[in-house]
Amino acid sequence: MSSTKSDNWGDRPAVPLPLAGPGQVPCCDQCKRQGSTETLKRCGGCSTMLYCSKECQKAAWTSHKTLCRRPRGNANPSPINVAKMVGDWILVHTETFEALLNTTVYLGGGVAHALSEPRGIVCRLNMRNDWNGNPAAPFHLVSFLLEHRDEAEILGDQWDGLMESRKKAEGPFKVAETPEIAGIIPIVFSIRDNGSNFVVNNYFPVNHTRLADDTALDPRTRVALFGLNVHCKRCLDGGLVYHTVKKPGGDGMGMDLGRYGKKGKKGKKWKWEMRTPGDPEFMEMRLQNTALTGGMTVPETWKVYNEL
């Protein structure tokens, strides 16, 4: 897999994306005291960070101020807002993002190769100019690559910090207790918006395969993984979301594909909507994927991936 040198990434600080697990209790971002959305107050600048008191907010300001507010006269979001958008986007696309990460690793030389330092994932995104608040579609996906530190300037710039913090990711992901997880790989998101560039750091688990040697995939498996990889990129770029359904029959082992739309009496909440029969975008996506894989359907590529 080829890598390219990055452009000039600017001097914005890299924002670490908080590792949130299911049922995580909100806490003060300074003293870590647990609370609720009622007892903890949001920062008035970024509306993202939570504090239990004015004293904690004041103590955190020295480090938080560079991430909090957008530059004067600049319509772009603040770095911490962008980090939250990335986190929400990943959460909405959990199944798709996980499959894209793993297929990228499997096609890029296998698990051991990917987890050997100094390698990481670089995800390049562009903000949508016409974004309407849909958490599934704030970005256009430009590229998603497994890269070597020396071949990706953005990885090299962040590497020391990535390595110092990667160990912290093993606890929330329960690596020691989860046999299917092979390890944690660092990922750097580079987001462009109207000439500005934001960098967000995170870490994700990579899963083992059942293969004795995952460096040599058979032709059918490679084609299926390649087709699923492209399909996942199209879903992420287009805001198409996989969702677990009660009655299996959709794409990918009890999942179906749909979009997010506004629901509720006031139309303020975004919720998943199942695709309508004969939707031309979905039909076109299926045809493209079948042509790309030599006749293999999207559900068939998911099946190969899930059985790997």
Automatic annotation (TrEMBL):
Question: MYND-type domain: which residues?
Answer: 28-68
Signal peptide range: none
**Pfam families attached to this UniProt entry:** zf-MYND (PF01753)
Keywords associated with the record: Metal-binding, Zinc, Zinc-finger
Gene3D superfamilies (alphabetical): 6.10.140.2220
GO MF terms listed in the record are:
zinc ion binding
Keyword Manganese on this protein? no
Q: Does the keyword Zinc apply?
A: yes
What the entry lists under PROSITE patterns is as follows:
ZF_MYND_2
List the InterPro entries: Znf_MYND
User: What is the protein named?
Assistant: MYND-type domain-containing protein
Q: Which organism is it from?
A: Lentinus brumalis
